[in-house]
Specification:
The structure is a single chain. The protein is an alpha+beta fold and about 475 residues long. It folds into 3 domains: about 180 residues, no CATH class; about 90 residues, Orthogonal Bundle (Helix Hairpins), CATH 1.10.287; about 160 residues, Heat Shock Protein 90, CATH 3.30.565.10. The chain has 11 helices and 11 strands. A 5-stranded mixed β-sheet has the order 6-8-9-11-10. Strands 1-4-3-2 form a 4-stranded antiparallel β-sheet. A hairpin with a 5-residue loop joins strand 10 and strand 11. The protein is rod-shaped, with a radius of gyration of 46 Å.
């Protein structure tokens, strides 16, 4: 299914989403309010033509006031008019439109200049006032971007002291002042958008990171809980919602810890109670007259005791009850290999770890011991190779046994008590819990344990352990 473009651009992390929402919201708000800046600049550009027009109009009114009669006034008006300054006598004024705030401001400016020049107020009605670009078009605010010297077009009606009305239409320039469209836009983008958005972006990156840090700590704690349920409780800090989640998390961890402790105590008690009847059965078995039946019962009892012991070992083997420590993998592998050689088994170690690995020593040793025992039991020998990298340590254990013919069973052998008949040596013993314990320990370290058949024969077990140092956990005491 094709993913929409907007969904591909949507960040996967809460941190990225909050930053994007803040920046886009700020940009949208600035986009909507940018018209205020342009309108202000438009008013500033229209101010000089308006003042020049108002001064000229005030001089016209003064001349008309001192004219001796109506004929003289009309002659003076005709002489003062030109192509950019048209005067027309009208019988009555036109109803002035409501106009915008900018036009009302220009009207007040013109009236103020005339009042100061004449010393008395004059009634005027501003019908229109707007910028015109150099091509003679009215583009409003856009005239700032396509004209280096926009001029102002004015249309008003004015009442003379004699009670006559004069309709005035004029075009007034900037008195030689130029505007540069390019620098104007650049100034706006730099001062308003770039500077402000940069400040908001930096603030969002810092503030949002600080805000989501408790959530990241909670996620790390949940991940660490899967590796070690006995880790210290999560600090209850941060906003109310995060503190509530941390308290619930700590309560869940406490309940899980109690549940596991109850399970261990239960299994220990069951094991202890089972040993008494098993002992009685063994005594009664020895009194059987039939030696063949006695041998069969002895085998069954041995198997039962082995299963009880293995079950307890499995429970204790996957529980993490120790703090993390730097582990010398080389010494651990050499020690295990030397113990196996002393028992008469062929075990070799190739390669070495470059530095210690942070982990749980007792559990990791149990995992490696199970893998070596498995290789020796079914293959007669074991070859260990160590491959160390910057982020991952891999320990590969190979045997020379028959392997597992059916690849589908390579995962099933990790199930508790599952054993393969035929392809592996069924008479070699084992309860089917060794690989289960080994994979659980690998998961507790954040790693993986996989099996695959060798290129020629045998089975190859790969234990991959991440080099996640967890420095804060090295000094914690758990369990």
């Amino acid at each position: 299914m094709k993913v929409p473009v907007w969904l591909r651009l949507w960040p996967n992390t809460l941190y990225g989403r909050l930053v994007l929402i803040l920046v886009v919201g700020m940009f949208a708000g600035q986009l909507f309010t940018s018209t205020i800046w342009f309108e202000t600049h438009d008013n500033r550009t229209l101010e000089i033509p308006a003042r020049l027009f108002a001064s000229r109009l005030a001089d016209t009114v003064r001349l008309l006031q001192h004219a001796p009669d109506d004929a003289s006034r009309r002659t003076i008006a005709s002489e003062l008019a030109d192509q950019r300054y048209r005067l027309q006598w009208i019988d009555a004024p036109t109803a002035a439109p409501a106009g915008s705030l900018a036009q009302r401001t220009v009207g007040d400016l013109i009236a103020g200049v005339i009042r100061r020049r004449l010393g008395e107020p004059v009634e005027i009605r501003l019908l229109d006032a707007q910028l015109r670009d150099e091509a003679g078009h009215h583009h409003g605010i856009l005239s700032l971007f396509n004209s280096r010297m926009p001029s102002g077009d004015f249309h008003l009606q004015l009442m003379l002291p004699q009670g006559e009305w004069l309709d005035v239409q004029a075009n007034e320039g900037q008195a030689g002042m130029l505007t540069e469209p390019g620098p104007l836009v650049l100034d706006y983008l730099l001062r308003i958008y770039l500077v402000r958005l940069t400040a908001v972006l930096l603030l969002a990156l810092v503030a949002v990171r600080f805000a989501v840090k408790p959530l990241k700590d909670l996620a790390k704690a949940a991940d660490a809980l899967g590796r070690n349920i006995y880790r210290p409780p999560l600090p209850v800090t941060g906003p109310l919602e995060v503190r509530t989640a941390a308290q619930s998390f700590n309560s869940m961890q406490e309940q899980l810890t109690r549940s596991l402790a109850e399970r261990t105590r239960f299994l220990t008690a069951v094991s202890h109670d089972l040993r008494s009847p098993l002992t009685r059965l063994r005594l009664r078995m020895e009194m059987l007259p039939d030696s063949e039946a006695r041998d069969r019962l002895r085998g069954d009892l041995d198997e039962m005791e082995a299963m009880v012991g293995a079950t307890l070992d499995a429970v204790q083997g996957v529980e993490i009850t120790e703090p993390r420590h730097p582990i010398d993998i080389n010494s651990m592998l050499e020690g295990l290999a030397e113990d196996a050689r002393e028992a008469g088994h062929a075990v070799s170690v190739e390669g070495e770890a470059d530095r210690p690995l942070s982990g749980y020593p007792r559990n990791l040793k149990r995992c490696l011991q199970n893998l070596l025992d498995n290789a020796i039991r079914y293959g007669g020998s074991a070859h260990v190779s160590v491959h160390d990298g910057r982020a991952m340590l891999r320990i590969v254990i190979r045997d020379q046994g028959p392997g597992i013919a059916d690849d589908a069973l390579l995962e099933r052998v990790f199930e508790p008590y599952f054993r393969i008949a035929g392809s592996r040596n069924g008479a070699s013993g084992g309860t089917g819990l060794g690989l289960t314990i080994a994979r659980s320990v690998a998961a507790a370290h954040g790693g993986t344990l996989t099996l695959r058949n060798g290129a020629v024969k045998g089975l190859e077990a790969t234990l991959a352990l991440p080099r996640d140092e967890h420095p804060a956990e090295l000094s914690w005491r758990m369990g």
